[in-house]
Write a structure and sequence with these properties.
Aldehyde Oxidoreductase, domain 3, TIM Barrel, elongated, six-stranded parallel beta sheet, alpha/beta, 2 domains
Length: about 290
């Protein structure tokens, strides 16, 4: 495993399973027709992963697995760590081994590495924008199906925090839950009865009146949905430390600083995972 600046790396089993599925999709039933036809079986090669734009790296272990699943003799040498900024033109990793393996695994390695590094890069921009405030940038469940763990790991690489991983590890009572339950009091009471002692409860509110109603009951956090900065500041004062405060809705790089300055604890940003552009990296063979 490569060295990482990030706490909580991805389990090897999770990486291997995702990479195997991606390779199977790419190879189909006939394999790599182009490589098998044009590259001698015994040919050895060296290649580098180069950054074509500056950004933050994430996913080196996944890129490594794209080659090791095919051939464990491939040598993958990271020259930076996950979570580390890289300049345009710099080399992120060096890989050597059978040329056929490098060519066959290239696209899967780059797909993961570019996508995850793009998320880390965008997250770092948001984190830098709120530096000096108490707010932390958090992700959401707006992730690519099947890739949530990878995308949330990339958020951590960029200096962000992870919200709940799924429906199973925390209770978030949203507006539709409140309607279906018959009101905020009924929803919170039922949630508190149902939840184990290790499960956190958060309630979404859209107004200060809804906030006051929610705070009449023991909760761990409040999601302040689509509130302007003035309302957020008032909400933080009303909460007065009794629960974590999370701002959500309509957050952009242009608005995030003003939101952070209201004193909220967390700012959740769906765009980190659903709209991050890739970080452009390429794999280039080194000439003999």
């Amino acid at each position: 495993m490569s060295h990482s600046l990030v706490e909580g790396t991805l389990p090897r089993l999770l990486i291997t399973r995702a990479v195997e599925q991606a390779l199977a999709e790419d190879l189909g039933s006939r394999g790599d027709l182009t490589t098998d036809a044009t590259v001698p079986a015994g040919k050895q090669a060296v290649a580098t992963f180069g950054a074509r734009r500056a950004g933050v790296i994430a996913g080196l272990d996944v890129a490594r697995a794209a080659f090791h699943v095919l051939d464990e003799t491939v040598v993958f040498e990271p020259l930076v760590a996950d979570g580390e900024a890289i300049a345009a033109g710099a080399v992120a990793a060096r890989v050597s081994g059978p040329a056929r393996v490098l060519l066959t695994g290239e696209r899967v390695a780059l797909n993961f590495l570019c996508h995850m590094s793009g998320i880390a890069t965008l997250t770092r921009r948001f984190a830098d924008a709120v530096a000096g405030t108490r707010a932390r940038i958090a992700d959401t469940r707006k992730t690519t199906p099947g890739l949530r763990a990878f995308e949330k790991y990339a958020v951590r690489c960029g200096g962000g925090a992870n919200h709940r991983s799924g429906l199973y590890d925390a209770i978030l009572i949203k507006d539709n839950h409140i309607v279906a339950a018959g009101g905020v009091e009924a929803a919170i009471t039922a949630a508190r009865t149902h939840a184990g002692h290790m499960v956190k409860i958060e309630v979404e509110v859209g107004s200060l009146d809804e906030l006051r109603a929610a705070l009449k009951h023991p909760i761990d956090a409040v999601l302040l949905d689509n509130m302007d900065p003035a309302t957020l500041k008032a909400a933080v004062a009303i909460v007065d430390g009794r629960a974590l405060t999370e701002a959500s809705g309509g957050v952009s790089l242009e608005t995030v600083r003003a939101i952070a300055e209201t004193g909220v604890d967390l700012i959740s940003v769906g765009a980190l995972t659903h709209s991050a552009p890739i970080l452009d990296l390429g794999l280039d063979f080194v000439a003999d």
